[in-house]
From TrEMBL, chain A:
Protein name as annotated: Vacuolar protein sorting-associated protein 26C
UniProt GO BP: intracellular protein transport
Gene of this entry: Dscr3
Localization in the cell: Endosome
Subunit structure: Component of the commander complex that is essential for endosomal recycling of transmembrane cargos; the commander complex is composed of the CCC subcomplex and the retriever subcomplex. Component of the heterotrimeric retriever complex consisting of VPS26C, VPS29 and VPS35L; within the complex interacts with VPS35L. Interacts with SNX17 (via C-terminus); the interaction is direct and associates SNX17 with the retriever complex. Interacts with SNX31; the interaction is direct.
The keyword Manganese belongs to this UniProt entry's keyword annotation: no
Listed Gene3D superfamilies: 2.60.40.640
GO cellular component, as recorded: endosome
Organism: Erpornis zantholeuca
Alphabetized InterPro entries for the sequence: Arrestin-like_C, Vps26-related
Role according to the record: Component of the commander complex that is essential for endosomal recycling of transmembrane cargos; the commander complex is composed of the CCC subcomplex and the retriever subcomplex. Component of the retriever complex, which is a heterotrimeric complex related to retromer cargo-selective complex (CSC) and essential for retromer-independent retrieval and recycling of numerous cargos such as integrin alpha-5/beta-1 (ITGA5:ITGB1). The recruitment of the retriever complex to the endosomal membrane involves CCC and WASH complexes.
Family: Belongs to the VPS26 family.
TrEMBL record, chain B:
Statement: the UniProt record of this protein carries the keyword Iron: no
Similarity comment: Belongs to the VPS35L family.
Keywords assigned: Coiled coil, Endosome, Protein transport, Transport
Single GO biological process annotation from the record: endocytic recycling
UniProt superkingdom: Eukaryota
Parts forming coiled coils: 161-193
Disordered: annotated span: 39-69, 84-115
Listed Low complexity bias regions: 52-63, 84-95
InterPro entries: VPS35L (IPR029705)
Keyword Ribosomal protein: no
PANTHER family in alphabetical order: ESOPHAGEAL CANCER ASSOCIATED PROTEIN, VPS35 ENDOSOMAL PROTEIN-SORTING FACTOR-LIKE
Protein name as catalogued: VPS35 endosomal protein-sorting factor-like
Compartments where found: Endosome
Length: 297, 962
């Protein structure tokens, strides 16, 4: 029927890095010839900060961080005004992904209060009679590998009633001893988080053991800031009353898009933590928190 | 009166000399019928057809290649194959070759590996329940619980990943109170909706369905159904795994060339890899452990697209992931699934199989932990029953491990099992999964271990049953054999529950039969009888009892020995339900027919088998299917044929008489008996060399009488006719002339009863072809039957002709005339001075009448009548629609005259010319046939005394169609 516009990048995974050339094609399909006023392609990259409900108001007055921060923005004119033949027309393009000056190309990240997104937008302007056509396509930016070797930072942990904080009635707690270790809290984002956990003893039956991946997003400036922790995913590693003394593997793959290397800028911060959550049969909930440092190698 | 007076006189001896095939002297030195044929040049030329391209002129060309000979040129494929295989068989295989073979064995699962599909049905049949089941396809409430964790979680935020857990927005579905069948149907529906979702490109929905299904595996309510549930749900997972794999594989198709089977990850394109990776990321984010495990295991094979080592890295990780599953039953089935997938995708990775088993052993103590025990109390399930739920999974894991495993490994496994307390469950699985040879060699150890097992745990009879199954397949050391039997039977005989007992005994009977004499077998059978008789317990155990009989007759097929096992017949008495009883009898008879080489007269065998056959026969009633009757009759016939009293013919006959009274309801048996008795009569004749004494003559008459009174009881009219004829021939051969007459008269009087249609193989067919065939046969016999002194000349022939005359033939058939034409053949043969054949020691009409003119006149009169009948009939065929038939009949009659008539007679000559013309008159004659016939006449004219054929040929014009 009408005219269809599509933007396709070359790589199947749509993943690009700083300094690489983003190439692809704009595909226009139409049964008839297409009259247009020019086709342009825009590459945009921006950080969107959103203030969480509880902070809005207190904050809004002081500083205006809610405005998107632009990382990259460039437009090229692909086709001058004219006609396109009927059928399928493919127009190749190339964009160098190059930052000017000291600016950094942040990695794509989809969070709750912080969003870092890169898009390619193709616009076809048309005469008054026909609507302009627009097609956007997200592409993904991975930051360059960090220099230097990642130092593993293993953590051993022991959880007993005594190690817990925030306990109201310590006496009513059943006795338990859970040991374990994380192989490293400095994690390569493409590698899973690994470790082991042993339920050495537990008076009460265990219902479930879970790994909760949490993002901690901080928005703000010198005047004040908002810090929010939200769950990204929850992975169960034990279901039911597991065998005592048998090591259970801790294994969690970091989800793409929802995690990025730990990021700290003047305006915002994105950090990650993992909680080991043990749920007992009598609905006691035991949580042990570990801050993580993610990086890309 | 023109025909018979002018019947051509024949000299049969000289004619036969002329007609016989020329005998060709053979050089037997290198003659073989299948050898390549060498054709000499002169013959080649003669045989060369027009247009043949062979233009060879070599003197011994084999240009006329026989298609068979080319195959046999030199060596045939089989011997070639054998020759090629020989060096391998004789020479020791080189190390390289052996290593390669070993590698092959490792990398692929051979046909000796019992596949899952064969276990599947067994499990579904065994683990059933009458309790109500439920399917819960929404677990949203649980998620609500976990989101109230310590760290602040904003509830309104729901990422896309979390949504994966719901089948569809708000489609909470809980199905309660399902019967087992409902449940299975539901699961099948889910399987179908998975396929539908997939084919309609709703991949995410498909994934959701699979996740929801695998969640059901974490539910252990109605625990006795769990193994079956596992089977049903893993079917869905298998479907899913296959769909994903094939989808990604189809993305790899490049220029319509699909990937080879053993592709490397480098040849997979980026899009396919990305899709594959996406699946793994999605699955890695599934919240719950059990679905995450099952779904990832289901698509394990897809790792092949990503990296070479993918599968070998995944398997250990998935293996240790199972440690997180708290319920030991759920965990062990998860392990079984992983082993199953592992064996399918990467059978060479044995390490994780072993790891799975060792991990299971580590968690073994959980089975007796509080959590499990409490659950059993709630569900009212006894420990022994609960333990048997583990068997399919452990059996499977051990089977995977034991496949082509060295003995050392198996020994290690066994040792590990021994170390655990109450290891009956493991012991049982070891016995069902490991190689029978391995188990058999250590039978005594196993018996020791079984004895030490805790009574309250895994049922002991199952252990003995498993051991027995192994011993049925492999032999234990010679010295231990008796002790094994004694030890085992000591326990088996103490089993109280008849079902447990018979399940065990059934298996051990095979071992006993295999290694011991009839004494032990007898003892075992006696013990079975003793256990199964009280309270008519045998009624619930027919399949097992039947299998016992099967095993006994498989091993003891010498029937003299078999029936000397005293308890064998009493054992048969336990089969009181008729259908089962008949089945057993059939087995016995089949075995007898298969194994009995020599005819027998052993009274024990005869008595017993007669009894068996009688049982089969007595089961026949109005409702019995034809097929069943046929089977039974064939078995009984097989038995009758194997009975021989040697030279004691009278005993033999009385046996037949007895058999007749016993098996009167099965016609095929009666037919067989008549044939047997006829054979007996002929055998007597052979022994007496044709000269019967008074005694043998009386005996033969008794045989004939037997047949004569038996035949009328048959219902099939053609069987009766043929038997009358056949028995008449036998009677004639034994010089019982009046008896033979009686048979033939009976046959003649039966002909009018032949119906128009008869049933052949269940279909109604016109009977005329059969009748025609029978009558021709009958007439040929009547040639040699001498006339009865008190009856008129040729009274049998006349009688038969009268019957044929009166028979109501189909309106539009020429059968009657065809028979008349054939009767002319007979009549012409009867006018000869010496008949073409005779029965030894019986004077036929040729010697009785000696060519008497009155006799010849009678024949002439007869033939005159017949000929006029034929001509009358030909006239009636003058109508438009019957002209074709007229032409055919005319030619048929013409041929008869040419063959049998003396054509020097002018009237006959004229008749034949008329017939020839009649045949061609209306253009229905087949030109080819006419040409051939004329050629034949011309050829005949060249023979001595046949010169008049030349004139005849001149008088026969050929009419061309154009």
């Amino acid at each position: 029927m009408g005219t269809a516009l599509d933007v396709r990048v070359k790589r199947a995974g749509k993943v690009y890095r700083d300094g690489e050339i983003l190439s692809g094609v704009v595909v226009i399909t139409s049964k008839d010839t297409v009259q247009h006023q020019g086709i342009s392609l825009t590459m945009e990259g921006s950080v969107n900060l959103q203030l969480s409900a509880k902070n809005v108001g207190v904050f809004e007055a002081f500083c205006n961080t809610a405005k998107p921060i632009q990382i990259i923005n460039s437009t090229i004119e692909m086709v001058k005004p004219g006609k396109l033949p009927s059928g399928k027309t493919e127009i190749p393009f190339e964009f160098p992904l190059q930052m000017k000056g000291n600016k950094v190309l942040y990695e794509t990240y989809h969070g709750v209060f912080v969003n870092i997104q890169y898009t390619l937008r193709c616009d076809m302007r048309r005469s008054l009679l026909a609507k302009d056509l627009t097609k956007t396509c997200e592409f993904i930016v991975h930051s360059l590998s960090q220099k230097g070797k990642l130092l593993p930072s293993p953590v051993d942990f022991t959880i007993t009633p005594e190690t817990l904080q925030n306990v109201k009635e310590r006496a009513s707690l059943p006795k338990f001893l859970i040991r374990g270790h994380l192989n490293s809290t400095n994690c390569v984002i493409t590698q899973p988080l690994t470790g082991e956990l042993v339920v050495e003893s537990a008076e009460a039956a265990i219902k479930s053991i879970e790994l909760q991946l949490v993002r901690v997003e901080t928005c703000g400036c010198a005047e004040g800031y908002a810090r929010d922790a939200t769950e990204i995913q929850n992975i169960q590693i034990a279901d039911g009353d597991v065998c005592r003394g048998l090591p259970i593997p801790i294994h969690m793959v970091f989800p793409r898009l929802f995690t990025c290397p730990t990021l700290e800028t003047t305006n915002f911060k994105v950090e990650f933590e993992v909680n080991i959550v043990v749920l007992l049969h009598d609905d006691h909930l035991i949580t042990e928190n570990f801050p993580l440092k993610l990086c890309r190698m | 009166c023109y025909f018979l007076r002018h019947a051509r006189s024949r000299n049969y001896v000289s004619e036969s000399e002329v007609c016989k095939l020329e005998s060709v002297p053979l050089d037997f030195g290198d003659y073989h019928p299948l050898k390549p044929i060498t054709v000499t040049e002169s013959k080649t030329k003669k045989m060369n057809r027009k247009g043949s391209t062979s233009s060879t002129s070599s003197s011994s060309s084999s240009s006329m290649m026989d298609p068979l000979s080319s195959v046999l040129d030199g060596t045939d494929p089989l011997s070639l194959f054998a020759a090629a295989a020989d060096p391998v068989a004789t020479a020791p295989p080189t190390d390289g070759a052996r290593r390669k073979r070993d590698k092959d064995e490792n990398s692929a699962v051979g046909s000796d590996f019992e596949p899952w599909s064969s276990k599947r049905g067994e499990i579904l049949a065994r683990y059933t329940t009458t309790e109500k089941l439920s399917i819960n396809l929404y677990m949203g409430s649980e998620k609500g619980k976990t989101t109230t964790t310590g760290s602040a979680v904003s509830e309104k935020v729901r990422t896309r990943l979390e949504e994966l857990d719901d089948l569809e927005e708000g489609s909470q579905k809980e199905l309660l109170n399902l019967t087992q069948q409902d449940y299975m149907n539901r699961i099948e529906e889910l399987n179908q909706s998975l396929k539908d979702a997939w084919s309609s490109d709703q991949k995410v929905k498909a994934l959701k369905i699979v996740i929801q299904c695998s969640k059901l595996l974490s539910d252990t309510t109605v625990i006795q159904f769990y193994p079956s549930k596992f089977v049903l749900i893993t079917d869905i997972l298998d479907t899913f795994g296959k769909l994903v794999y094939e989808r990604i594989l189809s993305m790899c198709v490049d220029n319509r060339v699909s990937l080879p089977d053993n592709f490397s990850p480098e040849s997979v394109n980026d899009t396919a890899k990305e899709t594959c990776l996406n699946w793994f990321f999605k699955i890695a984010s599934i919240r719950e452990l059990i679905p995450r495990f099952y779904v990832e295991a289901a698509i394990l094979k897809c790792n092949k697209f990503l990296s070479k080592t993918g599968i070998s890295e995944c398997l250990p990780r998935l293996t240790s992931m199972i440690r997180g599953i708290g319920d030991p039953l759920v965990a062990v089935y998860a392990r079984a699934y992983l082993c199953r997938v592992g064996m399918e995708v990467a059978p060479q990775l044995k390490e994780s199989l072993n790891k799975n088993f060792f991990d299971f052993l580590l968690t073994f103590k959980q089975i007796h932990g509080d959590t499990v025990q409490n659950q059993l109390v709630v569900q009212c399930v006894e420990i022994p029953l609960y333990l048997t739920l583990y068997s399919p999974a452990i059996d499977w894991i051990l089977q995977c491990i034991a496949y082509h495993a060295p003995d050392v490994l198996l020994t290690e496994m066994m040792e590990r099992c021994k170390k655990l307390g109450n290891n009956a469950l493991l012991l049982n699985s070891v016995m069902s999964a490991f190689r029978a040879e391995f188990i058999a060699a250590r039978s005594m150890d196993f018996i020791g271990m079984i004895k030490e097992c805790d009574e309250s745990g895994f049922p002991k009879h199952l252990l003995f049953r498993s051991l027995g199954l192994n011993l049925a397949l492999a032999d234990p050391p010679e010295n231990d054999r008796l002790q094994i039997l004694n030890e085992a039977w000591k326990v088996i005989t103490k089993l109280k529950n008849p079902q447990d007992y018979i399940n065990c005994a059934e298996v051990w009977v095979e071992y006993t039969c295999r290694h011991f004499t009839k004494r032990e077998v007898n003892t075992v059978l006696a013990d079975v009888i003793k256990h199964m008789t009280p309270d008519r317990a045998f009624e619930d155990a027919y399949p097992q009892l039947q299998s016992i009989i099967q095993k006994v007759i498989t091993y003891i097929y010498d029937f003299a020995l078999l029936f000397s096992v005293e308890k064998f017949l009493p054992f048969l008495d336990m089969f009181q339900k008729e259908s089962v009883r008949v089945e057993v009898c059939k087995c016995i008879m089949e075995s007898f027919i298969k194994h009995q080489q020599e005819p027998t007269k052993d009274p024990v065998i005869l008595n017993a088998l007669l009894h068996v056959c009688k049982t089969m026969h007595d089961s026949v009633n109005a409702l019995t299917l034809e097929d069943e009757k046929r089977t039974l009759a064939a078995l009984i016939n097989g038995f009758i044929k194997m009975v021989s009293f040697g030279r004691d013919f009278e005993q033999q006959l009385s046996f037949y008489v007895e058999a007749r009274s016993m098996f009167c309801n099965l016609e095929p048996v009666l037919v067989q008996l008549i044939h047997s008795v006829n054979q007996l009569a002929m055998e007597t004749r052979r022994v007496m060399k044709g000269n019967h004494s008074r005694k043998t003559a009386a005996f033969v008459r008794a045989c004939v009488a037997f047949c004569f009174i038996t035949i009328p009881s048959l219902s099939s009219i053609f069987t009766r006719l043929n038997l009358y004829l056949h028995s008449g021939q036998v009677a004639l051969a034994n010089q019982c002339l009046s008896q033979a007459d009686a048979f033939f008269k009976a046959a003649v009087s039966l002909v009018p009863e032949v119906p128009k249609m008869i049933s052949v193989d269940g279909k109604m067919r016109p009977s005329d072809a059969f009748l025609l065939e029978f009558l021709c046969n009958f007439f040929s016999t009547l040639l040699v039957v001498p006339d009865h002194p008190e009856q008129g000349v040729l009274f049998l022939v006349r009688g038969l002709l009268n019957v044929i005359q009166d028979y109501t033939w189909e309106d539009n058939s020429d059968d009657k005339v065809r028979i008349y034409t054939n009767v002319l053949h007979l009549l012409s043969a009867m006018t000869q001075e010496a008949f073409i054949y005779h029965v030894d020691k019986v004077d036929s009409n040729d010697s009785l009448y000696g060519g008497d003119s009155k006799f010849l006149a009678e024949i002439n009169k007869l033939s005159e009548t017949v000929v006029s009948q034929i001509l009358d009939h030909l006239k009636t065929l003058g109508r438009e629609e019957t002209l074709r038939r007229q032409s055919q009949l005319a030619l048929y009659f013409f041929n008869t005259i040419v063959a049998h008539g003396d054509l020097r007679n002018n009237r006959l000559n004229q008749l034949s010319v008329n017939l020839w013309n009649l045949a061609q008159k209306h253009g229905f004659a087949d030109t080819k046939t006419m040409v051939k016939t004329l050629e034949y006449i011309k050829r005949r004219s060249k023979q001595p005394e046949m010169s008049h054929f030349t004139d005849l040929a001149l008088r026969l014009p050929l009419q061309s169609r154009t």
